[in-house]
Design a protein that fits this description.
Layout: E1 2-6, H1 13-22, E2 26-31, H2 34-42, E3 46-49, H3 55-63, E4 67-70, H4 80-98, E5 103-110, H5 138-143, E6 150-157, E7 160-162, H6 169-180, E8 183-186, E9 192-197, H7 198-211, E10 216-220, E11 223-227, H8 228-239, E12 243-246, H9 251-255, H10 259-262, H11 271-277, H12 286-291
Parallel strand pairs: 1-2, 1-4, 2-3, 4-5, 5-6, 6-10, 7-9, 8-12
Antiparallel strand pairs: 9-11
């Protein structure tokens, strides 16, 4: 299959691309910079220049592909609503381009915030919908094209996708611990974060491209929910600093923008995904990954 991948040089994309290539697929990767283009070229990926604001470039990439894996997102949490509007425009462009073709369109989503305090399953829908919903209400928008000849599949990734080279939420929390001298957790730290290793997430993505039915939701979840206090205690141990509770009202000042996410209780299951795709997470869990030490090397 000729697969157009946005975010191909990003954190998850950098694991998805070799997974697709090893399975015999041809990959065309969106690149917005010369550095990203060179990195993709070195991996044997056909480079397609453009970015999320260049809708015509996205249209051309999707039009020439047998399937699309849309992983790119503007991770600007200072303008999260703006990032959501961009995401909605991108998904609408991809869906309109692929309408009537019965080609797969996989797009990144998340499990966070769907049913706080409850284990989220693939059957749960986002309570917020429409353009002002997280990620621009992308799931509702894309699934509306199921009967228009598109095979949309939502890839809901765990709150943390971890592994060597991760520069996301966990790395940001570690940097907050370095800067403050305290490895914090919010409140009593009983709130839970689901996690998945990036290689397990990549394998699930490839299987979803090959097998997932139209309008389906797939959960890239390796561990249902790890108490944030346990995460903080491991970080504190590795940095040789104390771990302690942070008042919820002080979460943003202590952690920065990631504080609102670290306060979430958002466990999630992947049982239905594992059954549907015959996928079993096999890579190290988050605590094991943190204890391996690579997160703490400068």
């Amino acid at each position: 299959m000729r697969v157009f991948v946005t975010g191909a040089s990003g954190w998850i994309g950098s694991a998805v691309v070799p997974e697709l290539l090893d399975a015999g697929h041809e990959v065309v990767g969106l690149a917005r910079s010369r550095e990203a283009a060179a990195a993709l070229h070195d991996k044997g990926v056909e480079v397609h220049r453009g970015d999320l604001d260049d809708l015509e470039s996205l249209r051309k990439g999707a039009d020439a592909a047998d399937g699309v894996v849309h992983l790119a997102f503007k991770h600007d949490f200072s303008d999260y609503a703006g990032a959501g509007r961009t995401e909605r425009s991108v998904l609408e462009t991809l869906c309109e381009t692929m309408a009537g073709s019965d080609r797969p369109l996989l797009f990144a989503s998340g499990v966070a915030g769907i049913r706080p305090g409850h284990v989220v399953t693939e059957n749960d829908s986002h309570s917020m919908r429409g353009p002002d919903a997280p990620r621009g209400g992308g799931e509702e928008l894309a699934f509306g094209y199921t009967e228009k000849g598109v095979r949309p599949v939502a890839l809901r990734f765990s709150t943390t996708v971890h592994g060597v080279g991760d520069h996301g939420f966990i790395s940001t929390i570690i940097e907050a611990a370095r800067e403050t001298g305290v490895s914090g957790y919010v409140g009593d730290g009983s709130n839970r974060w689901p996690a998945v290793h990036v290689r397990d997430a990549a394998r699930m993505t490839r299987l979803a491209l090959e097998k997932a039915p139209p309008g389906s939701v797939m959960h890239a979840v390796g561990e249902e929910g790890i108490a944030t206090r346990e995460i903080a205690e491991v970080i504190g141990h590795e940095l040789d600093i104390p771990s302690r509770s942070v008042d919820p009202d002080e979460a943003l000042s202590h952690f920065g923008w990631v504080g609102s996410f670290f306060a979430l209780d958002t466990p999630a299951s992947s049982s239905l995904t594992q059954q549907s795709l015959n996928w079993t997470p096999v890579e190290p869990g988050l605590i094991e990954d943190l204890s391996a030490g690579h997160y703490f090397r400068r």
